[in-house]
Specification:
binds zinc ion; 3-stranded mixed sheet; 7 strands; 9 helices
Length: about 300
């Protein structure tokens, strides 16, 4: 993430800031300019429990992120998911992905599971459903432990589900289908049967040879979504380190160059956390075939240099 500054006094502000902590100017994020501006047209969700800090789009009361929600029942539990969504949509915009210009239409259904009405996180024809009950840390941790996952966050969910949408909109366009099948497998494999088999199989670790996660090995679509989320994790985290002069700048346009710098950086990142007694933020060791999948995902982004070079 870029380091943003207050439009009034130039002191640093954060991606979720509503006002400058130094001069108290009310501020809002402008997606087109990728910077903070003095607040002129607040998103309607600014005054809700979700505290959205984006400017409304020119033609509406909502911002480019909140306008993708299928219902506007603002809720405290949706706030971390809304922030994760804004963070990820900023990334897509930077890489030339404009949801409004693509089909299927990208929409979000953010709701919390209850015992009477469980919500299943997933993607269907552009509609991303997210169970916001996982905004509760205890709920998130109990699901994470039950599934044996090393990493589970609202941000990870948003990026994973966006990966399914990106596949649906980019396959046969930015992504060659035959090349996809050679690398990720044949997506015509029965999806429901694949997931059932996944949840009934013990984790024997064999997925580590060519997948980023156990879940990625369940079906080619999940492999792509997991790889997509991972590319966005790398892109965001490395950008944050680069703008703060911790690492040399490198972008996903030359993914192999970026990845060669990313790996030593993750060791540093984990060691810093161990110095504070906190868990490794990057609990992954990725085998070369899985890294090649990241390169394919990064190359599918319209704004990436790898993609331009191929044309
Ligand atoms: Zn200021
Ligand atoms: Zn908004
Ligand atoms: Zn998925």
């Amino acid at each position: 993430m870029k380091a943003f500054v207050c439009p009034s006094c130039s002191v640093e502000v954060w991606f979720d800031s509503l006002a400058c902590e130094h001069c108290a100017t009310a501020i809002a994020y402008d997606l087109v300019a990728d910077e903070f501006v003095a607040l002129t047209s607040p998103c309607r969700n600014r005054e809700s429990a979700e505290r959205c800090n984006w400017q409304a789009t020119a033609d509406g009361r909502w911002c480019a992120s909140c306008s993708l929600d299928v219902h506007d029942a603002a809720h405290e539990l949706r706030r971390p998911f809304q922030l994760a969504k804004r963070r990820s949509l900023r990334q897509l915009a930077r890489h030339g992905i404009e949801p409004g210009r693509r089909r299927p239409d990208l929409r979000f259904d953010l709701r919390a599971s209850t015992p009477e009405a469980p919500v299943v996180t997933g993607h269907q024809d552009g509609l991303i459903t997210l169970d916001t009950a996982e905004a509760e840390p205890s709920e998130l941790e109990s699901v994470r432990t039950a599934l044996g996952e090393p990493y589970r966050t609202p941000l990870g969910h948003v990026r994973h589900e966006l990966g399914h949408w990106w596949w649906a909109t980019a396959i046969d366009d930015e992504i060659d289908r035959a090349a996809f099948r050679r690398q990720f497998g044949d997506e015509r494999a029965d999806y429901a049967a694949a997931l059932e088999s996944h949840y009934n199989s013990p984790d024997d670790g064999s997925w580590r040879d060519d997948h980023v996660s156990f879940y990625a090995a369940s079906h080619p679509w999940e492999d792509f979504a997991e790889s997509f989320a991972h590319v966005l994790h790398i892109d965001d985290t490395y950008e944050t380190a680069a703008v703060r002069n911790v690492v040399e700048p490198a972008g996903i346009g030359d993914f192999e160059h970026l990845y060669a710098r990313w790996v030593p950086f993750t060791l540093t990142l984990n060691e810093i956390n161990r110095s504070m007694g906190t868990p490794d933020p990057y609990p992954f060791a990725v085998a070369p075939p899985a890294v090649d999948k990241f390169t394919t995902v990064a190359g599918s982004f319209p704004g990436s240099r790898a993609n331009r070079d191929r044309r």
